[in-house]
Amino acid sequence: MNRLFFKFWIAWRYLFERGGSRLTSSLGILGLSLGVASLFVSMAVISGYETTLKTSLIDMVGHVLVVKRGSSEKKIDNLIEDLSPFMSSIKEYSPFLWLEGLLVHNGKLNGILIEGVDPETVQNVLNFESRVIQGRVDFGFEDKIIKVLVGKGLSQKFNLKINDVFKVAIPTGQDIYSSDVRPKIVKLKLSGVLELGRYDYNQRFIMMDLQSAQSILNKPGRISGVRTLLNDENLADDVSFKINTDLGDPYYAKSWMDHERNMFDAVKLEKRVIFFVLLVIVIAACFNVSSTIYVSVLKKMKDISILQAMGLKKSDVRHIFCLQGLYIGVLGSLFGIVLGLIFCGGFLWIQTHFSILPAEAYKLDFIYLDLRVGDLFWVIMASLLICLCSALIPAAKGANINIVEGVRYE
Fold it and tell me: How many CB atoms lie within 10 A of CB 337?
């Protein structure tokens, strides 16, 4: 135990002694810290993008979306009866009705998607209430005008304020395949603004209660499908696959992953690539670590020779200089994590005050950082391993010092 403590003490003293070694060691730790901070921030940003995209999807689409296509009369009871074999995996469900149309206001025109939801069940499946940034959730009618929630981008484009009244044109007919389709002008009143977390949704989404949407089509009880909340979100792909396989046409099920599967696959691949690319910074910093330890070996030749003459083994000398590399790795990783947290805070501040993310390309205009334990583990382990490897050659040089040569010129 005393021998082990002695090696730790000697390694620390050699690394941070007064003079040149302290400066070169500090520079080595600084370089490593910058590399670790870069890795830490990049992993937090990429993981945060994945988590933000996933959260925005689940909040607004649920775990599995089930629609029944090609039928002009769709009732909730009939649909749920057909889904009964899968109800053991479904925790909650809520019916919805889709309408498409045009919003015309202040001389501007924009395509819109209206979703009618059941106020009594929708909050069991979707988490849209937490995304209301202006106004409040208030469905129904006021002076025979339907009250709605709209996406943030849509409200900004048309400069819509709370309680503003605007008009939308919605095609109506016997069914969606009918040639007798006529536009119906409907007045809507803004009761709240939603931050849906996705650029495409914010630009065209309007939400109203289900009965109001059905009244526009003059089809009471009509629905487009149901959104479901599963007992386990990770089973969404399996459940949607079983529904598509067992029920088949006209049913179609889509999991939350299916909405942006290509994007999720790309994020996973890019995360691995960026990790190894930025790891080069850590490797470059460790060349400085290696040179620092090598200089320490040359400066301590006399001390090493004296210690060996007193009975210190070559393996002990090798351990001392390897411990120096480990010390630099540990300190560089710790300072790098602290520096990374500062950079993360700066990244969030910049996002708040400046638009740095092209939402049209990345679907999101704001990323919440996700600091995962697994990412942190691999960053620290990779840094420590590289630092330890960078100390092996100088340590071998120190262990092979000839005692006579070490003290000859002293």
Answer: 19
pLDDT digits (tens, 9 = 90+) for 128-171: 888 888 888 888 888 888 999 998 889 988 888 998 898 898 88
Residue type, 159: N
Short-list 298, 306, 307, 311, CA closest to 398: 298
Angle at 374 between CA 368 and CA 378, to 5 degrees: 115
What is the DSSP track for 132-163?
Answer: EEEE----SEETTEEEEEEEHHHHHHTT--TT
pTM of the predicted structure, to 2 decimals: 0.78
Rounded Cα distance between 391 and 321, Å, is: 7
- Residue-range domain boundaries for the chain: 2-57+262-408, 63-255
Alpha helices in 256-310 (DSSP H): 261-299, 301-309
Q: How do strand 108-117 and strand 205-209 relate by DSSP bridges?
A: parallel
| β-bridge mates for residue 75, sequence order | none
pLDDT digits (tens, 9 = 90+) for 263-306: 888 888 988 888 888 888 888 878 877 877 777 777 767 777 77
Q: Which string of DSSP letters, residue by residue, matches 26-64?
A: HHHHHHHHHHHHHHHHHHHHHHHHHHHHHHHHHHHH-SE
**CA–CA separation, 25 and 14 (whole Å):** 10
Quote the pLDDT of residue 206: 92
Kindly report which listed range (48-62, 175-189, 224-238, 342-356) carries the lowest average pLDDT score.
175-189
- The residue written with tokens 């994590």 in the block is 337
